[in-house]
Task: inverse folding
């Protein structure tokens, strides 16, 4: 992680390293299977093309992650003159954490939320919505900003962005295989007695996509708990973050679906998912349940309230 005073998290570092390694191995295995299956059909060039597309997606995601997320949220960067109070909070937290100040953005939507993105601390941006600024107190908003800044310090946004490339490549391949467009329709192997090539590729790409989907969800839930911990210890006010999470979740549950759709594309990056009435205790959720987060913050509050020995 970047040098800062945020609480280090070896568990997060281990999980990010493991997920990157496993997804890299999965991507290599996908290309190897394509070479074997398509090689006998004269489709070696397509296997190489898929590999290049996957690498290209990873590079594009790494380089443009901040622009893509800001565009998805319809957010804009704001200066200190435009948002002096917001910049003042970020300035104080960055000084407290001893880290470079990221750019600051605002998304004009009533959905109360916030996110951080960027390929490096120097290119990072922390963005809040107008809805969250109207919903939270200054102390609660500071807790949310500390949470988002910890994502920048831990570099987990970058890992999540690049790690999603294997799943994107597999998903693209799955769509092509479904129609058999790239693989000669119902052609079988050289002996004409095996499964159609497109079906083999479809199954393999689906397996790669499913595994990458689960790994990213598991990492995403842990990184949110890690950011809650790091932010709470930095501000020494876990109760403020707990209150903010409760308010955000409560407001999202009454926001019209039309407004939620505006931020859903970047929901995985936000401090709370833009979904209503859905249990988050599932394998597919990008965030831990509110109960888990509140329990953790309550433990931290109790720990900070104990007299030192």
Result:
């Amino acid at each position: 992680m970047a040098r800062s005073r945020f609480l280090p998290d070896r568990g997060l570092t281990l999980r990010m390293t493991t997920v990157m390694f496993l997804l890299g191995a999965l991507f290599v295995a996908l290309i190897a299977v394509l070479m074997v299956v398509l090689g006998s059909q004269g489709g070696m060039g397509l296997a190489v093309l898929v590999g290049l597309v996957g690498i290209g997606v990873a590079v594009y995601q790494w380089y443009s992650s901040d622009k893509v997320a800001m565009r998805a949220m319809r957010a804009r960067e704001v200066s200190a003159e435009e948002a002096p109070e917001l910049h003042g909070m970020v300035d104080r937290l960055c000084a407290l954490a001893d880290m470079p100040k990221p750019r600051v953005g605002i998304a004009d939507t009533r959905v109360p939320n916030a996110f951080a993105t960027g390929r490096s601390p120097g290119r990072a941006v922390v963005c809040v919505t107008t809805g969250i600024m109207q919903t939270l107190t200054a102390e609660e908003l500071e807790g949310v900003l500390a949470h988002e800044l910890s994502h920048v310090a831990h570099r987990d946004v970058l890992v999540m962005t690049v790690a999603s490339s294997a799943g994107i490549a597999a998903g693209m391949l799955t769509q092509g295989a479904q129609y058999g467009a790239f693989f000669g329709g119902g052609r079988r192997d050289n002996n004409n007695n095996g499964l159609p090539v497109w079906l083999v590729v479809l199954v393999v790409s689906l397996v790669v996509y499913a595994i990458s989907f689960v790994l990213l969800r598991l990492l995403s839930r842990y990184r949110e708990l890690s950011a809650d911990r790091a932010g709470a210890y930095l501000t020494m006010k876990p109760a403020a973050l707990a209150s903010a999470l409760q308010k955000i979740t409560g407001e999202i549950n009454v926001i019209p679906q039309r407004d939620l759709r505006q931020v859903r594309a970047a929901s995985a990056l936000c401090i709370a998912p833009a979904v209503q009435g859905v249990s988050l205790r599932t394998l597919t959720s990008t965030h831990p349940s509110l109960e888990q987060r509140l329990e953790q913050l309550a433990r931290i509050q109790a720990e900070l309230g104990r007299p030192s020995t």
Remarks:
- Residues 10-303 form one domain.
- The chain has a mean pLDDT of 83.
- The chain has one domain: 10-303.
- The longest helix spans residues 197-235.
